[in-house]
Amino acid sequence: MRRLILALAILAVVLAVVLVWSRHGDDAAEPAPSTAAGPARSPSIAHAGGAARPVAAPSGESGEGGQSGERGQSGESQPQPVPVDPATAPSPDTPVSKPAPPQQPFTREETIAKREADLKLLDDTRTRLAADLATAQGAGSAGSVRELEVRIARLAELRQKRAAELDAIRAGGPLPP
Amino acid sequence: MVAFDAKRILIGAFVVMAGCSTSSPTEDPAAPELQLADTDNGVSGTFGETTFTSEMVSTNVLEITVKLNGMMITALVDYDSGVMEFDGFAKDTGESTQMTDDDRAALTALEGALAPLGGELPFALDKLRGFVATWAEHPSTVDLQSIRLAAETRSWTSLCYAKNTYYPASHDCSVDGFWADSTTLDGAYLSSTGSFGGPDGTAWYFPAAGSYQCCSGSWSCGRYTCSVGAAGWYAGVEIDHDTRIENAYGNCFGVCGSGCPGSYQYTVDCVNHDACVRNGHVTASAYCDDQFVSASDDWALAPDCGA
After folding, report:
1. Looking at the partner chain, which of A47, A62, A153 has a beta carbon nearest the beta carbon of B287?
2. Interface pTM (ipTM) of the complex?
3. By percentage, how much of chain B surpasses pLDDT 90?
4. pLDDT by residue (tens digit) across A59-74?
5. How many A-B residue pairs are in contact by the CB < 8 A criterion?
6. Closest CA–CA distance from residue A1 to any residue of chain B (Å)
7. How far is B75 from chain A, CA to nearest CA, in Å?
8. HSE (CB half, 13 Å, CA atoms) of B35?
9. In Å, how far are A77, B136, B244, B292 from B195, measured between CA atoms?
10. Distance (Å, whole) CA B50 – CA B35
11. Are strands B146-149 and B203-206 parallel, antiparallel or unpaired?
C-alpha cells in the first residue's frame, strides 16, 4: 500500500513537471522580461478583501531577446484580407506631411530641476493624503482609512527612491531614459 | 503650463449625458452603466466594478485614481513643472503588481463608455478619458510605477498639422530597428476613421495581387501567408512586418489611446505606438514597451486636434 501511494505521488510530480514545461514552451514565444532581482510572479497570492493580484514581474526590455517571427498559439484563426469600401479610403492625392523634428532629451540641469519638482509633488501629495486620512479616521471610514494608509506608505517608499535617484543624477550618474 | 478655471468644471451635464449614453432598457440589462458625479474639483464615478476619480487637487496638479480588479492605478500630473508620477499596486496591501489582460479589458470597456461623451468635456473628465484610453494598452512588462518628465518637443510632439494626411510611422523590435523597411510605414493615414474590425481595426494598402506576411494570435503574433487578388485597401488582418506594405489607416491610427477614445490627440509617439502594436505585435507585446513608455505622457498634455 505504501509503495502504491509512493508511486502515485511520483506520477503526480512527473505530470506536474510536464504541465509546467509545456506552458514554458508557449511563454517562450514572447520575450522574457530581463531578470532583474525581484519576486517571482505568483498569480495565486490572495489579498484581503480583493481579487488576487499577480506580484509585479521584473520590468521588461523591449526588443531584447526573443525571436523574430513570434510563434502563434495552435488553433488561432488565420483570416484573409477583405476589401474595404473605397469611399472611406484616402484619396490618391492625399498629401504626405513633413515629419516633425526629433524630440530632444532633457539636459542634466533640466532633469535635476524637474526631479526636484517631483520631490515637492510627492511631499505635497503625502501631506494632502495625511489630511484626508485624518478626516477618514474621524469619520470612521475603515475602507478609506486602509486605502489612504496604503497610499501614504507607498508614497513614502517612492519618495525615498526618487531622492536617491536625484542624488545619483546630481553626482554625475547616467541620466535615466 | 495649462491655464484652466476649476469653476468651469461642469460635470453635472455630463452626469445626465452618461446616464443617457449607456445601456437603455432595450440593451443588455447586465451591461454596466457609467455613473458620473461632481466632486469639488473634478469627477468621480463607477463603471461596473471599476471606480475612478479625476480631480485638480491644486491649481496645477491633476490626480487620477482608478480602482479595478483589486488594483489601484494612480496618475499625478504637475502641469507647472511637467512632472508625472504613475503607479499601480494591490489596493489592499500596497504590493507592487502588474497589468494583466483582465485589467486591460476593464480599462478598454471603461474607455468605450467614456468615448461617446463627445469632444468638449470638462478638463478633469477629458484627462480621465485620455489616461484610461492610454492605460488600456499598458503592457504587462512595463512597470506600473514610473516617472515621466514632460515638455512639448522634448517628450511629446503634436501632429495636429498632419491630421488627414499620410505620416511616416515606425518602431523598433526584434525584427529590426527604427526606420528599417520592415518596421516602417512610409505613410500611415492619420484620421478619425473608425474600426474596420479584425485584429486591430486597421486597413492596409496591398500594392499588388499576391501573398503577404500576416499574423494572428491573442497573445503573440503567429505569422502566416495572406493573399489578395488585386491591389487595393483591405482589412480584417494584421500585417507582420511585410516590407511591401507601406500604408495603413483606420481605428483612429495615430490617435493616443486604444482605438477611437472620443478625443483626437495625434502625436509622434502615439503614431509610432500604433505602428508597433498593429504591425506584427499584439497590443501588450513587450516589443512595444518603449513605444508605450514614450507615448505614456501624451494624453496629459497634447492638444485635441478634433475629429
Report:
1. A62
2. 0.89
3. 85
4. 543 332 333 344 444 4
5. 255
6. 45
7. 11
8. 10
9. 19, 16, 23, 21
10. 10
11. unpaired
- Residue recorded with cell 490618391: A92
Contacts of B119 (CB under 8 A, 6+ apart): B262, B263, B264, B304, B306, B307
Per the CB < 8 A criterion, the answer to whether B223 and B214 are in contact is yes
For all residues of chain B together, what is the average pLDDT?
91
Which pTM value belongs to this model?
A: 0.84
Kindly list the residues from chain A whose CB atom is less than 8 angstroms away from the CB atom of residue B196: 84
Q: Tell me how far apart the alpha carbons of residues B243 and B184 are, in angstroms, rounded to a whole number.
A: 8
Where do we find the cell 498569480? A43
Q: Which of B219, B288, B290 to mutate to test the interface with A (most CBs of A within 10 A)?
A: B219
Q: A80-108: per-residue pLDDT in tens? A: 999 999 888 998 899 999 999 999 999 99
Query: If you average pLDDT over residues A15-43, what whole number do you get?
Result: 42
Rg (CA), chain A: 27
Least confident segment among A59-73, A137-151, B125-139, B196-210: A59-73
